[in-house]
């Protein structure tokens, strides 16, 4: 009553044993693909973590640098500016991780929150009554009167270009893991499990437990079983090329590190621009939002403090070097895995599964 291991000679197998063999080959095939995938998956997961740590390190550095700008140059508004600064860098971090947000909305929201502070603490420091309605009016007016000149738009442009590649790389790495996980759990067809039993276990039914499959026979069976998986070859090669393009893009002129480290300078230039145009801004705001209560003796001629260029700190240089090295290591490794799905049958037929240095092997029907 055997369905797979039919043979003229007497056999020690039963139909129930054949069913057990089918369950075994399904399990073994999943385990062998998992073993092949392990190194590749381990490298990608490791780099997702490493990239994320490097991103976070750079973001923390840029945020601290921006906070210190307010504490040293714009002390009257430093305390109130802390929250908008924190929100800006949280939004940037979420954007890199793939959240449904844009760099433009994050930056413009920051400048919307910043304008009421700049107006009431630096341009007109005598204002005492900063009601919710008046603050909201200032926020809305910012979009029309453009107090920060071209600096806010420049900041959007610079950050968008550099953060885009980081966001895409983050999403691409997650996609790579998804693809690998899917191939591990690809269904084994009935024909495939029968072919694997015939190759691996039918010799046992004749007591030939030490005979292994011939190499060519194994390759034919595995290629048939893995046809759907090996179809990923062209797309996987394209995926590796895209990773290469993204990592090169990150290291090119619109470098993530340079863009993040320049945020504080863009904000400083924007605030200086608003202060220099203080009288015109005050006249426009008075027409739109009305005149708020002021202390006696308006202090509107607030000192404009220009912040000197801060030298790059060791923290930033270390994070920058770390990110560059990780990018280089990672893309070199991924390029070596370009043929991963094209050669999966060959790799599964390597090692202990087949006879390599022997004159006899199993061809599916008999020992040859």
Automatic annotation (TrEMBL):
A biological-process GO annotation: cell migration
One cellular component term from this protein's GO annotations in UniProt: cell surface
Compartment(s) where it occurs, according to its Swiss-Prot or TrEMBL record: Cell membrane
Record flagged with keyword Heme: no
Keywords associated with the record: Cell membrane, Glycoprotein, GPI-anchor, Heparan sulfate, Lipoprotein, Membrane, Proteoglycan, Signal
Major subcellular site: membrane
Coiled-coil segments: none
Membrane disposition: Lipid-anchor; GPI-anchor
Lipoprotein is among the record's keywords: yes
Known function: Cell surface proteoglycan.
Family: Belongs to the glypican family.
Annotated protein name in UniProt: GPC5 protein
Chain's gene name: Gpc5_1
């Amino acid at each position: 009553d055997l369905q797979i291991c039919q043979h003229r000679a007497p056999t020690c197998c039963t139909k129930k044993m054949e069913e057990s063999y089918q369950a075994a080959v399904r399990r073994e095939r999943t385990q062998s693909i998992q073993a092949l995938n392990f190194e590749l998956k381990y490298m990608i997961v490791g780099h997702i973590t490493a990239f994320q740590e490097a991103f976070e390190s750079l973001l923390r550095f840029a945020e601290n640098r921006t906070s210190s700008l307010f504490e040293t140059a714009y002390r009257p508004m430093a305390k109130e500016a802390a929250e908008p600064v924190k929100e800006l860098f949280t939004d940037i971090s979420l954007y890199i991780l793939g959240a449904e947000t844009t760099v433009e909305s994050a930056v413009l929201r920051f400048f919307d929150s910043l304008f009421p502070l700049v107006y009431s603490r630096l341009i007109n420091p005598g204002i005492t009554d900063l009601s919710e309605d008046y603050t909201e009016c200032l926020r809305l007016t910012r979009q029309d009167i453009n107090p920060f000149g071209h600096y806010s738009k420049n900041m959007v442009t610079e950050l968008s270009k550099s953060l885009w590649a980081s966001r895409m790389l983050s999403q691409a790495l997650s996609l790579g893991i998804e693809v690998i996980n899917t191939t591990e759990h690809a269904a084994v067809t009935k024909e495939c499990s029968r072919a694997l039993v015939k190759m691996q276990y039918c010799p046992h039914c004749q007591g030939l437990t030490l005979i292994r499959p011939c190499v060519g026979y194994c390759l034919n069976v595995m290629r048939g079983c893995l046809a759907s998986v090996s179809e990923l070859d062209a797309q996987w090669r394209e995926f590796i090329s895209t990773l290469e393009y993204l990592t090169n893009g990150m290291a090119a002129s619109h470098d993530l590190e340079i863009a993040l480290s320049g945020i504080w300078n863009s904000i400083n230039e924007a605030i200086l621009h608003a202060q220099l145009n203080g009288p015109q801004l005050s006249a426009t705001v008075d027409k739109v939002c009305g005149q708020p209560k002021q202390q006696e003796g308006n202090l509107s001629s607030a000192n404009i403090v220009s912040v000197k260029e801060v030298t790059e700190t060791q923290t930033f240089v270390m994070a920058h070097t770390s990110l560059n090295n990780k990018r280089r290591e990672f893309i070199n490794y991924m390029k070596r895995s370009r043929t991963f799905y094209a050669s999966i049958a060959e790799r599964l037929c390597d090692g202990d599964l087949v006879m390599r240095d022997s004159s006899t092997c199993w061809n599916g029907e008999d020992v040859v």
